[in-house]
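re: ur question from yesterday

yeah so i grabbed the chain u mentioned. its 503 aa long if i counted rite. heres the sequnce exactly as i have it in my notes:
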Amino acid sequence: MTTLHPVPSRNDQPAGRTGPTGKAGPGAAPWENEFPKDVWHARALGISARSQVTVHFENITRPWLKQLAKRWARWRLTTGLTVESAVLGTKAVESFNAFLDSTRITVTGTADIDREVIEGFLAYLHTHSAGAPSHRIRIGQFNTFLLTMRRHGWVTDLPSTAQIYTEDYPKETVRQPRALSEYVMAQLEDPENLAKMASPHHRLITVILIRCGLRISDTVALTQDCITRDKDGAPYLRYLNHKMKREALVPIDEDLERAIAEQISYVNGTGNSGTRLLFAHDRVDVYGAGHISASSYTNALRSWVRECDVTDENGSPAVVSPHRFRHTLGTRLINLDVPQEVVRRILDHDSHQMTAHYARLSDTTIRRHWEAARKVNASGSVVELDPDGPLAEAAWSKQRLGRATQALPNGYCGLPVQKTCPHANACLTCPMFITTADFLPQHREHRTQVVQIISAAEARGQQRLAEMNTRVLGNLDRIIQTLDNGTREGPSHLLEEDNRAGR
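ran it thru and got these structure tokens back, copy pasting raw so excuse formatting
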């Protein structure tokens, strides 16, 4: 049987000890009221909650396991972790309880949790959540639960084999950013559609998510003093990045600054004049005034998208969530050639790894269109490049480097950057020249200029100049004809895929 150390009562607290509210003595009373319950309310405990305000224990049916889960959740909350963290941990214990319901292995307390039980639990999680983000989260949270019980001596009979090792975790799936396409974003950013969002709270939240890329939980918790300025007077949005537990800044424009000022006036005129919150409730609940929840905004967003009949390129209803605005901003910035370090700072990522996802997505999109596009050389002949060949990766790297260092107004240079080009300009007689239909307008304009040069040279009797440009004119005619044919015959799905990628 599990040996549990007794939960301290208020009388066992040392003098001057503070609870989560920061108050001594009587500050422990809320815990005495809430701890026995199967549902804890964060505000009743004096804890400022964000997207989640309750922790549920009713699905943990084993008394010994529920007692430990509650003690762990209380300890995490009193050390400053968020309600979301406590919920994630409790759900991991709840999954373990469900596993015990499904197995014939006898587990009556922590003394029975050995390696055999751990392996059975891992198999249970694999069956029920393989491939889902919650899979690794459940394993990690339950491992923390075991380590915490052992470290703090909450039980004395937990076997040494009750451990989860690094190799027990499933391989993490690298997920691409889920940016919304520009086709969808054009509908969402349409002023007429934004005006259909009845609540001024929800309307401003939407604009902040789109322009600043904040997480929804950080957005709804913004305070009225969220605007700050640098020495040049430029405005920034200041917010608490709860995931990184630090303040962060993102530059904004005057329009958004003005909208925030209007929101402050609106909130202070609805009976919440004493609040610090930017998105305070229009009413006061039993736990006092708080900000609107992330879930209520998410529901309002979905209803608004349906009301505005926002569709994707195929005419299907668009799938929009608050976090996809963050992915969209990151993708937009990368596609605008904003340096990756700048994007990392704007999105306040803790490492370059997450920001690199956006850069990889952009590079993949550019490469796919380059490989699918019809490419011709200076003589108008089609250039075939094998995207699956043994040198495909190296060839693409050379092409990207060439784009960055030898950009031409009407095509691309295929010459390795280590070599010196003998031509002073984008000469259409160079065998290394490559172009695509993207440059058809330039080629047509160039052709008009060449015809004018030939006419003037012939009028002045400059036969050599006329001959040189006649060769260029022939190449231009072949290039334009080949690219025109390729445009008419090319795959029509490229534009659609391009829109989906948010380019």
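noticed a couple things. The domain at 182-360 is CATH 1.10.443.10 (hpI Integrase; Chain A). also Strands lie at 39-41, 54-56, 227-229, 235-241, 246-251, 376-377, 412-413, 433-435.
anyway ttyl
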